[in-house]
């Protein structure tokens, strides 16, 4: 089934292909300028640091719904081994096999394609089994530090967690801005809290993924108008699931990653940040969130930290 006309109309309005040149691989991350980072650093007042990553472990967020996207399999390959002879310093070493998008992660711009294309109009078949993504892999991100803004939609609506059928709208985002006394601006990394991560933290992996609140197909135009650099939230699917438009699966992924060239992150734990922002009465902070630079990869784990 082809994508509906409604999707293509939105795609035209948010498309950034060629905006930073035909060779560009970083998309909206180009909006994070030196000036943006200086202003982000100026938001630090107390030095309070809030980690936003879920633990990397077996029994994490993956329930088997996506084939091959497995929780980390951690194996010790040497334990207190005296490599240089008896009585020498001993070392322990380990290895991990995991889906790069198993827990808290960024999706690279190549994570999805549509109509045979990826970001900047490149052919989707430039992603191969041997080399992975030739263009716009997660390694193209490099450093990622900017002003973070928490749009605490759940708290702004007066609830601890949004209902599973709640599609987060532009109106919700604007209301969360007003609630937090903050204005999203160019180069920001926006974190959207729904409270859904509470479900998996409570041990229900299946209930975490379905049904799930998430971003509406109407929100990419809001982020595009504000020149947002990247968006992350606290759900498995990022966008509302099941979709708000019948049989239109992952439209927000396609609009963000393919059309806008905007990173999106999933499975971020925003609970402690929500509490901290409420306590301090401010919702903007310095955010460090560089992905692991796996060459050719279409996503990567991240251990983001908000600094207030």
- Computed over alpha carbons, the radius of gyration is 20 Å
- Tell me, what's the shape? globular
What's the total number of strands? 15
Calculate the mean pLDDT score and round it: 97
Largest sheet: 9 strands, mixed
Measure the end-to-end span.
47 Å
Order of helices and strands: HHEEEEEEEHEHEHHEHEHEHEEE
The proportion of strand residues reads 15-25%
| Biggest sheet, spatial arrangement of strands | 1-15-13-7-9-11-12-4-14
Structure annotation, total helices: 9
User: Helical proportion?
Assistant: 10-25%
The helix-and-strand class reads: alpha/beta
Uncertain residue ranges = none
Write the layout of secondary structure elements.
Elements: H1 5-14, H2 34-41, E1 49-51, E2 73-81, E3 91-97, E4 105-107, E5 127-128, E6 132-133, E7 145-152, H3 153-156, E8 167-168, H4 170-180, E9 189-193, H5 197-201, H6 205-209, E10 214-215, H7 219-226, E11 230-233, H8 251-260, E12 263-266, H9 271-280, E13 284-288, E14 299-301, E15 305-307
Parallel strand pairs: 7-9, 8-10, 9-11, 11-12
Antiparallel strand pairs: 1-15, 2-3, 4-12, 4-14, 5-6, 7-13, 13-15
